[in-house]
Design goal:
The complex is a heterodimer of chains A (about 300) and B (about 350).
Chain A (H helix, E strand, L loop, with lengths): L8 H27 L1 E3 L5 E3 L3 H6 L5 H34 L5 H11 L6 H11 L6 H8 L10 H29 L3 H9 L4 H29 L3 H6 L11 H11 L3 H39 L1
Helix pairs in contact in A: 1-12, 3-7, 3-9, 7-9, 9-12, 11-12
Chain B lengths: L3 E8 L13 E8 L4 E5 L6 H9 L6 E6 L2 E2 L5 H4 L1 E4 L11 H11 L4 H14 L15 H13 L6 E5 L7 H18 L2 E6 L2 H7 L2 E6 L2 E6 L1 H6 L4 H6 L6 E4 L1 E9 L2 E9 L8 E5 L4 E4 L6 E10 L4 E7 L2 E7 L9 E6 L5 E4 L2 E3 L3
Parallel strand pairs in B: 3-8, 3-9, 6-7, 7-8
Antiparallel strand pairs in B: 1-2, 1-4, 4-5, 9-10, 11-14, 12-13, 14-20, 15-19, 16-17, 16-19, 17-18, 20-21
The chains are: A mainly alpha (about 300), B alpha+beta (about 350).
């Protein structure tokens, strides 16, 4: 089909453009502005050029070392929760009933953690894990396991990861379930006739058919976990020490704790850039995978 | 390769105790000859896919038995039955190449690699898939994918029968014809029992040497295309096969005469003992009724329109309130809307409660 050229269409786009300009572009430019300057308060600013960025990307400086330490923590965290949530979500989706009233029951139950606000999730786990009054912490300690997320790094990480798995595995499971439901029965029947084992059905049919929803799930979970702030902040406050201080927590410390607007602005721009790049990578991978598959849908 | 016997086979989706009229497949006993090409023809929802799935083992029957070459396999799994089935939509394994797709059923059965390669090469040659063996199966067109689905069935050397569940639904018309010829050629070459489910009579009549017509969960007739055309065993068969379908009209039949609207139509066979309280109808194909000028001894009808099919013209008429189709003889032009109908007596059949009554 030929594209119709109609310049009047721009008038329809203009309001959106204005809204986006005021809500996103102008605030972002303010951050860019801050990132190039230094301030000692009193609304006095001094030009600093790319100084903050240089410092940020130099691991030997204070700012740089804090940035890289939290960046690795973030990447490690995202890696771990993806490695747990994606396979677990698939297993849960495979175990779900395919029809009957139990479907509705499972869907609602699975959706529950997704409906809880982030800081409530944090509070739940903060109390749940306490050795004195929290069920989880109390049981573990009584079972002879020395568990204390306030003082032990490993326990803190364990709690934060467990919390995220509890909170978000449902999302992966629901997406996978949707992917599984869209597989026509004929595939299973054909596999039965071809004598495929359960494992062969999974690798030859279910996994390839879930490929697209899995990409979406991985993208969503990566973005969300990479930007995580509220839950670890509520549970561990970034501690013990700095062991669970993620980039977002570091950012708030610098911007609001130390009121280093320049450093914080530079950090948030780099943070933003990393997320954009990862987004773009995922998007490219997904659309390319889609392009490969498109002739199939056209043909079928 | 096998002869398939169905013994009192029935399927109900509401359990064995449900009313027999609610069964998706009413009890049927029949034999599918080894090497036969069968078409299972009927409208959507008539139970033909149910019957097919019972044979392939996707469904377990509520009642009855299925025998392959005399061995009861009613409870055997799909895998043990050595059935190949091609579905309405091409089923291919996305991540595999064409060759891997074809090898899949053999690999699952633990066949040695050398044997697999040999079979795959052979089947690919039969189906003209050899140039595509190393391509990803997802990149191929719908008809090639259907050939892969078929190939996965044929690749097993011991396959008992090949079942097709409306396999050409998603294929373009000109490729449909090619693929159908391919199926016929394969049938001749491999001497396999093939059962082909369709609701398209052209497909059924061109593919099969025996057509099994199903209606409302019952097998109403099984025979050659010519038998179905000349002597439908059920008014449904008459109506479903042929275009336009058979004319069915209520009549009073006694001896060698049928009376409609006070006019007499001669019959070649005599009907003495018709059931007294059954609904009696006569059926005659439009090809064997000519319209002529009205005459006092002919059944009269009103012309609604004339369809010109090129080779032949059919008049759509009404006898009283009943729709009727009749041939317009070459060169005949009706002078008014009122015409007479002239029947060829040997092609007029009598039906009692929709079932053919054999005359003597």
């Amino acid at each position: 089909m030929d594209k119709t050229i109609n310049n009047k269409a721009w008038f329809l786009v203009l309001p959106v453009f204005l809204v986006v300009a005021f809500s996103a572009i102008l605030p972002l430019m303010t951050v860019v502005n801050y990132s190039m300057q230094d301030t000692f308060g009193n609304n006095q600013f001094f030009w600093n050029g790319v100084g903050w960025f240089k410092e940020l990307l130099d691991p030997s400086s204070d700012l740089g070392s804090r940035f890289f330490a939290s960046l690795w923590r973030n990447l490690f965290f995202s890696g771990v929760i993806l490695a747990i949530e994606v396979p677990l979500g698939i297993v849960v989706a495979l175990a779900m009933p395919r029809d009957g009233w139990r479907v509705a029951f499972c869907l609602v139950t699975l959706a529950l953690p997704l409906l809880i606000p982030w800081n409530v999730v944090g509070t739940i786990w903060q109390i749940f894990g306490r050795p004195d009054i929290g069920l989880f912490g109390y049981v573990l300690n009584n079972a002879g396991i020395d568990y204390n997320y306030v003082s032990n790094e490993f326990d803190a990480w364990f709690t934060v990861i467990l919390m995220d798995v509890w909170h978000w595995t449902s999302l992966v499971a629901l997406l996978c379930y949707a992917g599984l439901k869209s597989i026509p029965d004929a595939y299973y029947q054909a596999a039965q006739i071809d004598g495929a084992s359960r494992w062969a059905v999974f690798t030859a049919i279910q996994l390839p058919k879930m490929h697209r929803v899995l990409l979406i799930a991985v993208l969503l979970r990566f973005m969300d976990s990479f930007m995580i702030y509220t839950e670890p902040f509520v549970v561990t406050g970034g501690g013990p020490g700095n062991s669970t201080t993620f980039i977002s927590i570091e950012l708030v410390k610098i911007a609001l704790g130390q009121f280093d607007l320049g450093k914080a602005a530079a950090l948030s721009l780099v943070y933003n850039l990393i997320i954009l790049i990862v987004c773009w990578l995922f998007y490219t991978v997904m659309t390319n995978a889609g392009a490969e598959r498109r002739p199939v849908q056209g043909g079928a | 390769m096998a002869r398939i016997d169905l013994v009192d086979l029935a399927q109900s989706y509401n359990g064995n105790d449900a009313d027999i009229e609610s069964f998706a497949l009413k009890p049927v006993t029949m034999t599918w000859r080894q090497g036969g090409a069968y078409a299972l023809l009927g409208p959507s929802g008539c139970g033909k896919t149910t019957l097919l799935n019972l044979i392939s083992g996707i469904l377990t029957p509520t009642r009855g038995q299925i025998l392959f070459d005399g061995t009861d396999i009613t409870q055997a799994s799909t895998r043990e039955r050595n059935i190949a089935q091609v579905f309405q939509f091409p089923v291919i394994y996305d991540t595999m190449t064409v060759g891997q797709n074809l090898a899949f059923p053999l690999k699952n059965r633990g066949v040695p690699k050398a044997e697999i390669d040999k079979r795959v090469a052979e089947i690919a040659r039969l189906l003209d898939l050899t140039p595509d063996l190393n391509r990803k199966a997802t990149r191929l067109t719908a008809d090639a994918k259907q050939k892969i689905s078929l190939g996965r069935g044929l690749v097993r050397s011991d396959v008992a029968a090949v079942l097709f569940d409306e396999p050409l639904t998603v294929i373009d018309p000109e490729l449909k014809w090619q693929l159908r010829s391919k199926l016929k050629a394969l049938h001749r070459e491999l001497d396999l029992t093939m059962i082909y489910v369709t609701h398209d009579q052209t497909e059924a009549l061109t593919f099969a040497d025996t057509v099994v017509v199903m209606h409302d969960g019952r097998v109403v007739q099984s025979g050659t295309p010519a038998e179905l055309f000349d002597k439908p065993a059920h008014t449904f068969v008459g109506y479903f096969i042929g275009s336009p379908g058979m004319n069915i009209i209520a009549a009073e039949v006694s001896g060698r005469e049928a009376r409609i609207d006070g006019r007499t139509i001669a019959l070649t066979r005599g009907y003495q003992a018709l059931p007294s309280n059954a609904k009696i109808e006569i059926g005659v194909r439009p090809e064997f009724v000519d319209i002529t000028e009205p005459a006092p001894d002919l059944l009269s009808a009103n012309i609604e329109r004339i369809d010109d099919l090129g080779r032949v013209r059919f008049a759509r008429v009404k006898v009283g309130d009943v729709k009727f189709a009749a041939r317009v003889p070459a060169g005949f032009a009706p002078s008014g809307t009122q015409v007479g109908l002239k029947f060829q007596p040997s092609h007029v059949h009598v039906y009692a409660d929709s079932r053919l009554v054999e005359g003597a």
